[in-house]
Amino acid sequence: MDTADAPEITTQCLDRRINSLHSQLGHQEHLIRSVQCRLRERDVAAEYGHSTVRAVTLALATYIVLAFYMTIVSLPRPWINALVPAVGFQISTWTLPRVEKWYSTLRVDREMTAPLLNNEDNL
Length: 123
What we know:
Blueprint: H1 5-49, H2 52-72, H3 78-81, H4 83-121
Helix pairs in contact: 2-4
């Protein structure tokens, strides 16, 4: 083997390695973009869960379904009487996030103070 070929072989090896690393980097970038897209989809879904669009859609759907039901079973003034349960349902959906936040805060506070109370008992 000629020593003049050695630097050329090393250069070829380096070129292949660089190309391989570029390919791996491209794959990693693709994975990162994929994860970012999934995280954004999750964030948008969470935002929708507390959005005005969702609240209005639920209220309208509840009102329409109840009004049709009341019409079918021949209840008096179905389009007016359907407002009461639809509004009640809407009020309950507005209060749920507040109750959830209160419960989470209460639970975290208890979990954080429990180890402190246990340590005082051991003294």
